[in-house]
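Cast an eye over my tokenised protein here and flag anything odd:

===
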Amino acid sequence: MRIGYPCINRRLDCTSAKKFRLASFNDERFFATVSSNLSCFRQILAWNVTQDILFFRISSDIIPFASHPVCRAPWQEYFSEELGHIGHSIRDAGIRISMHPDQFIILNSPDERIVSRSVDELAYHATLLDLMGLGTQAKIQLHVGGHYGDSQESIARFVRVYDTLDTAIRRHLVIENDETRFSATDCLEISEQTGIPVLLDVFHHACYNNGEETGDMLDATGRTWGADDGIPMVDYSSQHPAKRPGGHAEHIDLSDFRQFLELSQPFDRDIMLEIKDKETSALAAISLLQKDPRFERAIGKRVRSG
């Protein structure tokens, strides 16, 4: 059981997701920005390892505009060696990496132009992971997409598009349930037709479900992950008390998280904390896990491999 957080470390004086305006794109600015992002990424990873945080979600903006037609810079070749070194460090430390493209990635859109752009963006994500040599346990998670007035046809459209994707993309892809449109059960239906693993978003499941118990969904979604996919991933958060339903908490609710850990006892899962204060909540979560054998196994593997 690894604990992770997404994209930004608020304690470090850098960002691995620096961007600039599309209108100001030029190769010099692009290469300088990517170099800065990768430098910060290295710092984040190094800090995480010292804190036993062995799961991290990379921002899609680490290579800004990588899939946009304006970007013709050969970033794959230019940064190949550096990305290879970063990937070596990741593997040596036993870190798990994931990515979560923005909401405009919609494989089940009726608009073929949106689908085409989505596939291009997923290809960039897969290329980045492959340049780091991270293998099939590094995952790209995405939502099913929109209903478009017919949820079953939207599911069928997702399946049709998924079946056309290159293996280089599919080997990294997982789908997750959302809080308003496609439940974990819907995702399981897609998995049955495609073989794609299902990542359970625990908070989304609490917001939108068909009456299934969280423990049952942890079991069912976990069974969609093969040996090559690694330990199943889950997203965890809780409700912000002052926001509309579905609003993520600013800080981890340790009482709620403790209950989740007890509920998940039969299973080993890598947990991504989708909580606003990022690494602060990750550290708090780890404080509860010091005697959990699932967490101790993950830390033990890192120590032995080091």
Remarks:
- The chain has one domain: 3-305.
